[in-house]
From TrEMBL:
Amino acids binding substrate: S9, H65, G141, F142, G143, G144, D174, G175, G176, G196, S197
Family: Belongs to the ribulose-phosphate 3-epimerase family.
InterPro entries linked to this entry: Aldolase_TIM, Ribul_P_3_epim, Ribul_P_3_epim-like, RibuloseP-bd_barrel
PROSITE patterns cross-referenced by the UniProt entry: RIBUL_P_3_EPIMER_1, RIBUL_P_3_EPIMER_2
Species whose genome carries this gene: Leucobacter denitrificans
Full protein name: Ribulose-phosphate 3-epimerase
GO cellular component terms, A-Z: cytoplasm
An annotated GO BP: pentose catabolic process
Active-site residues (renumbered): D34 (proton acceptor), D174 (proton donor)
Length: 220
């Protein structure tokens, strides 16, 4: 069975009680940190000073998702502050391969994210340059939206390319992941699941356990 990871998104956490909210997801694999800049997406969250504090206190390593313009300029800073993985958007980077190499050289896992409207084709051959691919299953910007099942063919394209190349790149999904949709994504080849409202909408530890169980039946 392929390893599966549950990465709760703190976008749905209580931002004035972040330390407790981070403690509440100790059983998670990574904590997903959504950075938004009001340019790449129509929402604004946090920047390096807050992410640095999260990095300092979180018992779980950081999976930073950058929904920001000019990723080439800003992404390395998140690797430098110690994030375990840094994922930038393909649509926001002038040179995704150079940026991924830079992130890896700093010591972070390098991830590339694709908005729903961005096709996989240009990135399939580039897979060895990345440690993870994030297939967005909502339009980035907000938590609590509905899962786009029509992204599953894109996920399958990446899963097929991964097995053809024989590499261990993680396939992540983000947006609308619940106990009802996680199996659909796992079936299509995802192994890393971001969930915001589904985790923080209840008792986080219980929700994480329920998501693990729901995903496990569909592992590749
Ligand atoms: C959306 C963010 C997601 C968000 C997911 O743009 O990238 O990480 O927190 O929230 P849910 O799980 O509620 O769809
Ligand atoms: Zn995200």
């Amino acid at each position: 069975m392929t390893a599966q990871r549950i990465n709760p998104s703190i976008l749905s956490a209580d931002f004035v009680n972040l330390q407790a909210e981070l403690e509440a997801i100790r059983s998670a694999d990574l904590v997903h940190v959504d950075v938004m800049d009001n340019h790449f997406v129509p929402n604004l969250t946090m920047g390096p000073p807050i992410v640095e504090r999260i990095q300092a206190v979180s018992p779980v390593p950081l999976d930073v998702h950058l929904m920001i313009a000019d990723a080439d300029r800003w992404a390395p800073g998140y690797a430098e502050l110690g994030a375990y993985s840094v994922t930038f958007h393909a649509e926001a980077a002038a040179d995704p391969v150079a940026l991924a190499r830079k992130l890896r050289s700093i010591g972070a896992r390098a991830g590339i994210a694709l908005k729903p409207g961005t096709a996989a084709d240009d990135y399939l051959e580039l897979l060895p340059e990345f440690d993870q691919v994030l297939v967005m299953t909502v339009e980035p910007g907000f938590g609590g939206q509905s899962f786009m099942a029509d992204m599953m063919p894109k996920l399958r394209q990446f899963a097929e390319a991964r097995s053809k190349l024989g590499i261990d790149v993680w396939l992540q999904v983000d947006g609308g992941i619940t106990v009802d949709t996680i199996g659909i994504a796992a079936e299509a080849g995802a192994d890393t699941f971001v969930a915001g409202s589904a985790v923080y909408g209840g008792v986080p530890e219980d929700r994480i356990a329920e998501l693990r169980t729901a995903a496990a039946g569909h592992s590749h």
